[in-house]
Request: fold
Amino acid sequence: MDILSALAAGVSLASDAMAVSVCCGLKSRGGYKKTAFYTALTFGLFQMLMPLLGWSIGKVGSGLLSGAEQIISFVILMLLGIKMLADARQDHSSLIRSFTVREVLLLAAATSIDALALGMVLPAAVGVRSVWDIIITVVLTGLITFIMSYGGFFLGRKARSFRPAYAELFGGAVLIILGIKLLIQYIIG
Reply:
C-alpha cells in the first residue's frame, strides 16, 4: 500500500467535510464545543464507512474491469477533483442554518459521496492489496476527517473571513494529482 497516496486521499476526502465544518463554526452559537465534537465525529464516521462501501461495490464488479482499473480510477479521480474545484465556487454558508441531528447526518452524507466513489477504485488509487490495507486506509481517512473537521469548526469560530472554498480547492487538486499519477503509472508500466 502506498501510504503517501492513502494520506493524500484522506486529506482530499476530508476537505469537503472541513469546508462544511468551517461554516458550522461560523454559524454556531452556544454549546459549540459539543457540537464541534459530534459534527466532526459524524463526518469522520461517514468518511470512513463510505469508502468501505464503495470498495465492497468495486470488489463485486472487479472481474468486469480486468486491466482497466487504472484508467477507470484516473477518470473517476479526475471527475471528483474537477467536481470539488467547481464546488469550491459554491457559497457554503447557505448550507447551514441550524444543527439538528438530521441536518448533520445529511451534511455528512453529502460530503462523503465522493468517498463512496473513491472507495470503488481504492486498490488502484492507493495500492490497497488486502483487507488490512483497506481497513488502515479507511480508518486513516476517518481520523483525518475528524481532525480536519474538528479544527475547521473552531477555525470558523475564530476566523470569520476564512473561505471554506480553499479547502475544497486543495482537495480537488490532490485528487487530480492522484489521477494523473495513476495515468502515468499506467502508461509507463
About this structure: The two ends are 17 Å apart (CA to CA). The first helix runs from residue 3 to 27.
